[in-house]
Amino acid sequence: MYNETTTSMNKSGYEFINLEYMEMMSDGDDSMKKIMLEMLITELPEELQKMTNCVSASTWEEMCSVSHKMKSTLAFVGNDSMTAANREIESLAKSGNSNMTTISNHMDTLNNLCPSVVEELKKEMTKL
Q1: Residue 14: helix, strand or coil by DSSP?
Q2: Where are the domains positioned within the chain?
Q3: Fewer CB atoms near the end CB (10 Å): N or C, the chain?
Q4: Are the C-beta atoms of 120 and 16 separated by less than 8 Å?
Q5: What span, in angstroms and rounded, lies between the C-alpha atoms of 104 and 87?
Q6: Which residues have CB under 8 Å from 22's CB, separation 6+?
Q7: DSSP calls for 62-99
Q8: pLDDT above 50: residue 96
């Protein structure tokens, strides 16, 4: 389930992240970018853990809420595969469709990409 964002370098030179949206939102302010990167590095793994817990507990309302919050986080990360997987999870949770195979596949996408995304976010942080 990889796409261009995750299989080829984007113009920033990263394979797993595209920070164009963050650049636009921070208006070139390095201190703002640093704050945003710190938030992403911390929140992304935490939110994914919450989602994993929701799957284990079959708490679909909470899953919908956590997944909805992840949309804004993932917008800053700029990984299309993660964004698409999260969108599908939110949709399934919202509809009450607890198709565990489909949800597990999307969670696998998120969890498999997260370490590489965080690594590139940390690399970007060292540039500031």
Answers
A1: coil
A2: 51-128
A3: C
A4: yes
A5: 14
A6: 33, 36, 37, 76, 78
A7: HHHHHHHHHHHHHHHHT-HHHHHHHHHHHHHHHHT---
A8: yes
CA torsion sign, 27 to 31 to 34 to 38?
negative
| Residue length of the chain | 128
Residues 6 or more apart in contact with residue 21 via CB below 8 angstroms: 75, 76, 78
Tell me what pLDDT residue 8 has: 55
Tell me how far apart the alpha carbons of residues 54 and 66 are, in angstroms, rounded to a whole number.
9
**What is the average per-residue pLDDT within 87-116?**
92
Find the helix or strand (DSSP H, E) in which 40 lies.
helix 30-57
Residues 84/1, Cβ–Cβ less than 8 Å: yes
Mapped onto helix, strand or coil, the DSSP state of residue 2 is coil
User: What is the gyration radius of the CA atoms in the chain, in angstroms?
Assistant: 15
pTM above 0.85, yes or no: yes
